Structure formats: C-alpha cells, structure tokens
Amino acid sequence: MGTAAWSPLQRFWTWLTAPADAVLADAARDGERLVARVRTWLTLVFLVIPLLALAADPVAEEHWVGLGVALTAMLAAILLERAVGRGLHRPALPFMTAIADVSIVSLGLVTFWIIDLPIVTVNSRVLFPIYFIAIAATALRYSAQVCVVSGVTAITQYLALSLLIWGFTTPADLARRAALYGAFSWSTQVGRAILLFAMMVVALAIVNRTTRLRRQSTFDRLTGLFNRAYAEEYLGPELVRTARAADPLVVAMLDVDHFKRFNDTHGHAAGDAALRQLATLLRTTLRRSDVVARFGGEEILIVMPGTRLPAALEKLDELRVAIGLRELALPRGGVGRITISIGVAAFPDDGQDADVLIGVADDRLYAAKAAGRNRVQA
What we know:
Blueprint: H1 2-16, H2 25-46, H3 48-56, H4 61-85, H5 93-114, H6 118-123, H7 130-137, H8 144-168, H9 171-175, H10 178-181, H11 186-218, H12 228-245, E1 249-256, H13 259-266, H14 268-285, E2 291-296, E3 299-305, H15 309-325, E4 328-329, E5 335-336, E6 340-347, H16 354-370, E7 376-377
Parallel strand pairs: 6-7
Antiparallel strand pairs: 1-3, 1-6, 2-3, 4-5
C-alpha cells in the first residue's frame, strides 16, 4: 500500500529532476535572457501603480507597502538581468528565478499582514494578478518542469497565506477594509487557487506547443540529424563561449563520395537509406557533445567543441574507415557501400568566425575530393 502510494510521487520526482533536453538548451538560455529583460521592464511599469495610488492618497499604508514591494522587485530584476547577461546560466537557474518571481508577490502580500491589513493579503486586487504574469513567463523557458514548479509554488504559497490569515486573525481585524476589498471567504480563496492552476495549465500547453515546433524546426526529417539552420544558430554562440573559455574547437564538413553514382546504381530510396544509416553511425560514434547536422544534400557538418585538432583528426579518420567497411542494407535487398571525404578546420587557427570556419572546412573537403576522395583533409 505504501509503495503504491509513493509510486506516482517517485515518477513525478524523476520527471521533475530529469536533465534538460540538450536540443532545447540554447532556446532555454535565450528564453531566460528574454524573461530577465521582460521582468525588468514589467517591474518598471508596475512601479507606476503605487506611485499613482500615493498621488491620490498619500497617507494610505497599503500604497507605501506597494511602493516598497515594487522597488524591491525592480532591484531584484535588474540584478538578475545583469547576472543572466553575463552568461550565468546553470540548470537550476530557471527554477530559482521562477520561484523568486512568485515569492516576491507572496512577500508583498505578507507585508500587508505585517502592517495589520490582513484582508488585503488575501483579497488584493493589484498584487495577486502578478502571480499570473510570473507563471505565464515560465512558458518562455521551454521547460514544462519550470512551469509546474512555478504554478505549484504560487498555489501553495497563496493557500498557506490564506490559512495563516484565517487561523491567526480575529474577525474584527479581517473586517477592517473589508468594505473596500471584500470579506474573507474560503470559496474566494480556493477559486483564486483554481485560477492559478488554470494559468499553469495554459503555460504548460504553450510550452508543449513551442517545444514541438522547435523540434520540428531543429531536426532534418530524413536523417534525424540537426538541420542547417540549427547548426548555424548553434555555432555562433558556441564560438563566443569557446573564445571566452580559451577552449579548442574543430569544424568538419563531411560528404559522401560519388553519391549521385550510388543513387543511379541503387535508386533514390537506397540513397535515402544510406544517409539514414550514415546518420545513425555518426550519432553512435561521436560524443553527445558533438553537434552533427545535415548541411545540404549529402553534406554533413560536424562541430566538435573542446576537441583539439590531432584528436579530432584521429576520431574522424576512424569514422571514415568504419563507414568504408560498413555494409549498408538496401531497401530492395542486398547491401551497398559508400566512402566519405572530410574537410577539417580548427578554431582559432583557421578562423574565429562561423562562416570562415565552415568555408575553410568546405574548401578542404573539395581538396580531399581532388586528392582522390575517401580521406580526411586538414
């Protein structure tokens, strides 16, 4: 009985702590930077609300509390944006910032309780809707887990505040400002929690939709490799990171020798099958950190971060030999063989720009073909 009860929680925890999808890592980093910018601008906009309220009623305590919360949120937003802008991105960062966004709202609501306005804590019409913005912003991070953590945190904190107000506040204290903010009602508090849950579901739907579209725009449908657009989008920021860390990096351009002759001999279906099997061999042979993308036709781009040229040449030549020896199953029966030629460029010796490195690797690919094919040229 105990094991059965814990099983769903264990599955949920496994899902929640699963490593982030490497395919979406770049999009998640961009999303975190976007969230940081949006957070800063929104806190500046929200600062206007307490300022206008103070202009209309400068003696109301709740307006001064709202101003303090807005200034605190703005300062936190500026610091977070500076940290993210400097490349501070760790797997836990999206979770931490999402929880912080929600907790700042809860902290503002708690402050009303501290200044003896508990009904504003549970029935605030200005601070409470910011929960929705905090949960919606998680959709920009390409992570369903972050959405769930943000939504559950908001619901838990708000219900906990409602329970504290209900349990530790006298009816007379709750009645103060009730004419303006409404009386305390558990149906209202639960209804607000349900609205937060609904916002979380909407954010999850947006994340699932955007991640599916991202995958469709990232992978080549025939081979399952990354496509050219993703490779070019990846290589630019990766070169910036590599230069900052003074790490090595190798770019290689691979092409199937006499592929047109292979298609003419065995048929285009056999050519497609050969490319799929080549892609499988590349994925299983190279490291997970290496990016392999179909660049066009039978050309394949390989990016090997953190790899020095001698080690890259050794690995690529092993790959060339393995492909030349492999028998490829053909759709109509029988087997075929292909060979490959590879041109290699190293960062920073052969260039420090993505287009330059790809161009050098491509030139050396053609040099390998001119030298007789079935070789690695560097």
